[in-house]
Structures are given as structure tokens and as C-alpha cells.
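User: Please write out a complete single-protein record containing the residue sequence and its fold in C-alpha cell form, without commentary.

AI:
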Amino acid sequence: MSGSEVLPVAGMPVERASMLGNFARRQHNRLHFLDMLLGTIGLGKTAKVVFGKKAMGMAEVPLRLEHPDLNFPIDCTDKDVGTFNEVLFQRVWEYSGGNGRELNGLAVVDAGASEGTSTTYLASRYPDSTIFAIEPNGRNYDYLEKNSRPYGSRVHTVKAALAAEAGSIGLVNEEALTFGAHNCYLYSNDFFRVGHPNVFAPAITPSGIIDLVGRGNRVGIFKADIEGAEIGFFRSQAAKPLLDLVDVLMIETHDQWHPGCSLAVERAASASGLKSYSQEGHTTIYTRLAD
């Protein structure tokens, strides 16, 4: 059927129907985003975002957000409210099993720390733990550093991307090119399939993470939201010595970008004695702790 033919039911040219469908999807996404803003940051801050966008033409509207489960407010923009919602309202990184005292005081690795909401949440929840926050994107990392500062030496930030081997990792931000998002990086060296990356970050390997937390130290929590990089990281045998040290693995998988992510993570977790504890959407928690 060509673009000028008429749909038999709607009686409308296919090209125009497609344009209307795209418009409807954009409107739906805008309404969904507005509803999420209202439910997360309230009417006043939502009005600030709308005014900044519509009246001032701002690409990002600066925000300072507070929550009872954070020891200090975080600085971010409207682009980060979705992450704030996931961490503190949807509780995607909350492990409620076992005994909390078993984890408090052990090292916590936050891989894919973004602007720092998950990092500061984990630092607040586990006050005796040292948090190692890893984030490759420059914009996100600047916010991560700023938001981690009030926690002092308890939070160590590292600008790097997780990878099985050392080197330089290309970050391909397909989501940003389409939607203007800044916290949806797909890591890949597959230049021909996804296009040439415009941002590179140094790799941090499983062995590098072990060195970071200190040889011989256990990792109470290993949280990973690394936008597709998990398939290569967890498929590698190099991940096993690290996972053998982990008590709780919390991970969001991205099979929509790299089919096989979930299977790679599941096999690696199982090989290190980590058992699936819970699953919510794309986020799975594995643990070796007894309930």
C-alpha cells in the first residue's frame, strides 16, 4: 500500500493517519510525563518546569528535590524526575529481605549512578556503608559529584563505564537523540549497528571494581543499571570473582536493546550462588542471604 492510498476503514490517507498517530503518541507521552511530575514533585515545582519549558524555552529546568529517605536534598533537573520517582516512589532499588544489619557497613557499588538519586538513597539507607558510585556520562557525573558531596568520604565517585575488558567505551545515546533524555545511555562498541558514538568513557572492569572496594572486602550490594552493557559484562568469566563477593545483586536488564541481557545476568548470578529474590518489571534482585 502506498502513502497516498486510503485506509479502507478510516477513509484517510495512510501518511496522514501515521502523522496523526505519531501526534497522539507524543501527546500521550506529554500527559504521562506531566502526571508523573505532579505525583513526584508536586504542583509548585511542576508549574516551575512547565513555565521554564514553555515560557523560557529552557532545555532543562533546575530543581532541588527532597525526600524523607534522603539525608540531604539533591540537585537535578526535570530530566531526572523519572529516576527520582523510580528510586524513591517505585522503590526499584529496595531490598527488603534478610536482615538489614547484614548489609549495613558492607561496601555498596552503584553502577550507572546517573545524577545520584540512587547513590544518595543507598548512602542514607546504609549509614555505615561506603558507596562506590560509577557513572560514565559527563552531565550526569557532574550532578553525581555535587549530590554526593554532603556524604563526605562515605561516597566515592568514579567516571567510568562497566566493561569486561579495559579500554575506552563508546556511549551511544539513542534515547537522547530521539527524546532529549540525558540518562538513557546505551553502551556499545558495535559502531556499524548503532552508529558512531559521540562520547567515550574509560572502562572499569570487574577486577577494577574489586580493587576499588579493596581486595578481600565483601560487596553488600551491587546495583547495576548500565543500559545494555550488562550483556557483555556478565557474560564474561571475568565477572565471576566479583559476583562471588556480592551478597545482593540488584539489576535492571535491557533486552529491548540487547536481547539476551537477562539470560546473561541470570547465568552469571547462578554460577556465583546468587538466587533470584524478586522481580519487578525489568529489575531483578538476586541474593545469597537467608530470608
In short: The chain has eleven helices and 13 strands. The CA atoms of residues 116 and 202 lie 19 Å apart. Confidence is low (pLDDT under 50) at residues 1-9, 175-184, 187-194.
